[in-house]
Design goal:
The structure is a homotetramer. By secondary structure, chain A is an alpha+beta fold. Chain A is built from six helices and nine strands, in the order E-E-H-H-E-E-E-H-E-H-E-H-H-E-E. In chain A, helix 1 packs antiparallel against helix 2. The radius of gyration of chain A is 21 Å and the shape is elongated. Chains A and C meet through strand 1, helix 6 and strand 9 of A and strand 1, helix 6 and strand 9 of C.
Chain lengths: 247, 247, 247, 247
């Protein structure tokens, strides 16, 4: 019998992520999971070895540097294969739609990569947004129920993709975008924007999927949308991945 | 130096809760925390002793039986004081507002009691509901942002109060109630009802507080309302307790 | 483009699970997720339809009845395919190893099934246990660090398997079993038992995998073990599935 | 009737914390809750106002700067009273006990302050550690069950206290400290250290309480210890605060 993987789960570590705009670095705290198929004699020192390698890379992390961390981790552990995941909150300046007031929006991002048996790299973002129910709008004399929703997009790509570009692709996918600071003219705008643009979770999933499919560098993706229904205690959820899409 | 309390945290246990309607018993799973100020020689057998006592009471639990469980736990542990909390999901049949379609709604309830030093009993409910923003409605040509909110009411009372009555008191406190099953006429109703009844979290807190204050048996309460804003990633929150209320 | 699935996430509902011993039924509260590939006109009534079907089955649920719920849900939604998951706490009487004092132990179980495109049924259990570190024991003059660990076993089987049998298979897989009530002779027993039986997470994974492989009815499985290390803030984790096992 | 507080809950924001050693700044991500008793006309712009103030302070935060953030927030909101909480992961270099191998340890810290009605400042730390059961050691021929525990200390102080000093005070309170990287000689050391130093949760609570009481600047504190028992599925928990302590 062959053991598949051994490793550590949910260790938190500070990392600095290279930003698209300005070429700066953003400090954040990642939750990291490492699994590797390594010789038994390396298992005891696995954490020490990995944290040594991580220390070298923590001060300048990006979609292109992550694979180097993965390769060096695999090499140092003399593992046949290794899998590494790094999930972290990521903050972007975002301007309110009318007053252009700027505020920091928080997104969740993940770098996940395998080397050896299952070689690939998946970039993921979780983006908050608003969904407004088309059925509720259609049947009601006024108003329409709406709520916060979370869109998760996971992609495999041929070329380099910035986390910022993936967030930007997703953010226009729902009834309206979400902001950290909204003044009165902004609140009027987002309320009316959502009302003019009603979407079920399946509509959001389809729209984001179409944009992902149209992206020249993305060759696989999955989209999941969870809507925290304002009229129920449960969530509505829709999901699609590339394999379920016809040309 | 005197040690305040020792005990167990977050043990899960099946319990049967006496229902108001029909006099039946509802099976659920409680998360239980026990803290007691007991002699050292009883600490090792604390869990065994408590679970023995709990077993006697688990098949018929209610607001009036809970204090007996507390007293017997204190006595068996020979503790000066003891504090017990039992949090559980509770299900009620609820009819949709127009079609009267019946569905099970889930609420969270808690019995929390102290005996000895801090003698009291607090009954708590967490009720999902809808809030619709008055500002958004006022400034927008059409629509208004709305979202799921959670109302938490905690009370101390002179007489017996059913969990069902507390839930019912809270449920009418927000822009609209939440249901498990809604058909088209029901969805039209709740959409329009919320739109006609805009409320900030502070309005909900005030309305629920007024009802609690008007209740003849409630002599202390606190209300907290968290609204999962559909236009932001953060929650709006308001809180009041009896001590902050003037006659 | 074809949408893969739409549905609901994390709705909680009371269910009664058929027990192996005595043929009784155990009341518990399940967290349920449903995804289906259904015609658009059925989506609005999806929740109402599903809860109607669930109501018929909630009072007598088991590994054999669950597929019927899945088939009827699919039929009522006129879906090409459907996927249903039901996760619930499950309680078993367990006797302490020496004094035979009986107490209720809590386990987490899951029924997960697909019909249509991905037809299968996976039965899962999460079992708490103790791991004692072989390296720590070997190098120390006295003592050895040990901790709570959680073993997760997921299986696909040809024939009927009781949840109870799966729990029982897993429970003997680690350094020592975990109990709800232990008197002094029992505590001595489990302490010494763990010390005599040191195991890394990879040893537990291998042992449980061997037992699963030897079971005549299991044709696929995966095992994951997370050990909440007493000497670190992070967890050790090992994983294996049937595809990584050589004859 | 007077409304007590309105505000926001669980907004995440990057902050830089002033470090004791070297006078540098550590980047982390805080989860922030703000409640204030402000005039109604300020409520709509509450988030924008607070985030404006926060932006000024986020790049240099400490126990002494936090009260200034609180005062300015209160002033800008024209609130009678305000309460602010900031919880964040904090990392410290920690050397293994024998080999002196250095690794980053993660702690959770919180600044919580009130101005107006309930004027005070509470500094909190959550520190992972190891507890080894005295009873298990005494009755067993070899070994003793041990597990990870979490110690929470909350203090009010007359003078300035570094988070680092509070962590250091707590860390020596249990059977043994926890580290991020341990080589073989270190693992031998912590195993034997814990075995030589058995403590129940109540012993840890008492020891930490004694140290807090002996600290010249601390005039109020509470200590809670949760031990994730390796032989049970539940936690053992002990708690004490200054009011339960006799001279």
């Amino acid at each position: 019998m062959k053991l598949k993987t051994v490793g550590i789960k949910n260790i938190r570590y500070p990392v600095m992520i290279r930003e698209k705009s300005g070429g700066g670095l953003q400090s954040t705290v990642a939750s990291i999971t490492l699994q590797a198929n390594m010789p038994r004699r390396f298992r005891e020192t696995c954490v020490a070895t990995f944290l040594d390698v991580l220390r070298k890379y923590q001060e300048d992390m990006s979609v292109t540097i992550f694979p180097k961390l993965l390769v060096e981790t695999r090499d140092q552990l003399q593992a046949n294969s290794a899998h590494l995941e790094m999930t972290f909150p990521y903050f972007l300046e975002k301007k309110a739609p009318v007053t252009k007031t700027s505020g920091l929006m928080e997104y969740t991002c993940r770098f996940a990569g395998g080397i050896g048996e299952d070689e690939d790299f998946i970039l993921s973002v979780w983006v908050p947004s608003t969904t407004l129910c088309p059925c509720s709008k259609e049947i009601s004399e006024f108003g329409a129920h709406n709520q916060r929703a979370e869109i998760n997009l996971n992609v495999k790509s041929k070329g380099f993709i910035w986390v910022e570009d993936l967030i930007s692709l997703v953010e226009s996918g729902a009834s309206c975008e979400v902001y950290s600071i909204l003044k009165r003219p902004d609140e009027k705008f987002v309320t009316e924007q959502a009302y003019k643009n009603p979407m079920f979770v399946e509509d959001v999933v389809r729209k984001v999927a179409e944009m992902a499919q149209a992206h020249p560098d993305i060759y696989w993706f999955s989209v999941g949308v969870e809507s925290f229904e304002s009229i129920h205690k449960h969530s509505a959820y829709a999901y699609v991945d590339s394999s379920g899409i016809e040309a």
